[in-house]
Amino acid sequence: MPTNGSKVDLILDTRLTLLAQAVEEVNQVSKAMTELNDRLRCVEEFLSHNGTLWKVEGQLMTHMGDADTRLNVALRDMRDLPEARPRRMAGEPERSPHPGQTPSPLEEAADRIARATAEINALTEARRRAWESFQDVRRWSIAGLQRSETGQAAQDYKKSIEQIRADEHPWRRYEAEIPRQGYQLFDQYLELVAGMAVRGFGLDARIMADVNRLIDQLRKPIEDLDMPRGSGRRSPLTLMGSLGKRHLPLGYPEWSLWALPLVGRSVGEEFVGVCLGDSVTPRTRLLCADLYAQFVLGPSYVVAATFLDFDPNPQAVRPEVPADALRLQTLLERLPALGGGKFEGHLSTTVKNVDREWRVARSAFDGDDPVLDEELRFEADRFLQTLRKEYPDSEYPVSGLPEVKDAASQLANENLSDQTVVQGLSGFSNSLRQLICAMWLGRLAHPDKAAIIYKRAKLIASGASGSREPSQASNARGQ
């Protein structure tokens, strides 16, 4: 929990910090677009019909015409001389001198002028074609996506974040203002990001390769069912954007590593749909989707969902779906059972820490917590039994938890250099599932070190792949 006297608890502080980071990202993109627009204007001014190059072409043609006129006068004065011969006009094909006849210096100069004039005309035509091609470049450039409204929305959003932190009841003000303003900013920015993606811009290619592998890992049970690929194959940015429409926009690329575990729920909903069909209620369906995400991703899912998505306000209950408090209760009760309960001690610590912070956030609202009824409890346990029996290879490798916790400590340790940490944790570069778990466990234990944790995790995720997953290394040593 923040120790600066603020009434903002750790969960709300995490959301506000990430939202402020998102605003900064919007500003950076807007700045980059402005700079790119300035560069494109320079190119446009150089190539345009009234631009720099066009003016130089005109000046050269004037000089060439003047020189050609002067040479014509001089050549006319030579016509009566015995060695005189017909003069070739500018642009006229070159004539070979009569055998044994050497061109005069004036005739050679006239020939050079004719050639230079032809080159200038070719340059003018090339510039015209380049100008026409540039119009397509301009049309498809991300600089053309810039909007003044986005910058203003970012400023308003940043001001709201600061006001929430200073408010007497920060959670209430957050829920009153952020969804409305967040959608205004996020919708505009998502359009920019989508346009950037179309134009070939996006997340680091190596990180995206790991993200796609993680999604494949999440979807393996679905593909084992021989079902067609569905929503789980959409881009992570799109998946997180759709998840964030209810409460917290999640689609900002620069901090998508934090929100990435929530993609597991979207894939979980797809799995539940193809596995259970219409045999379950919407309440059970959502709980099972949560459990599926936790089954595959481990502790990172429940921590990310609690700090980024679940609403501690008991009044914010949607019809036909379980309250977020029930979803959290279901996840926390079953987290220690991952891996057959062999690492219950490690997982129980996470349960206690998450529950503690949730209760602090919950205290900002009045009302009673809902109770998980026996029918939902039974459905949840039966679904988990099915997962363990039918898809044991997809279960989160809890045997790697000791290494993950050690990695979490290293990510947050400012006494170690970035290079030392990144090199020491290079084995995580091929296991985004374990890396995001280390990120969230590190942030849960050291919330004030979130920035350095993210920085180092991104460096690791961008590093060379090919190392074994940490849990596999642990198994190889008999752990």
Helix content range? 55-70%
- Largest beta-sheet characterization: none
If you compute it from the alpha carbons, what radius of gyration comes out, rounded to the nearest whole angstrom?
Answer: 33 Å
What would you call the structural class?
A: mainly alpha
Q: Average pLDDT, to the nearest integer? A: 78
Q: How many beta strands in the DSSP annotation? A: 0
**Which stretches are poorly predicted, pLDDT < 50 over at least 5 residues?**
194-203, 227-233, 242-247, 249-253, 464-479
Query: What is the subunit organization of this protein?
Result: single chain
Q: Provide the β-strand percentage band.
A: under 5%
Distance between the termini: 34 Å
Count of runs of 4 or more consecutive helical residues: 19
Secondary-structure element order, as H and E? HHHHHHHHHHHHHHHHHHH
Silhouette: elongated
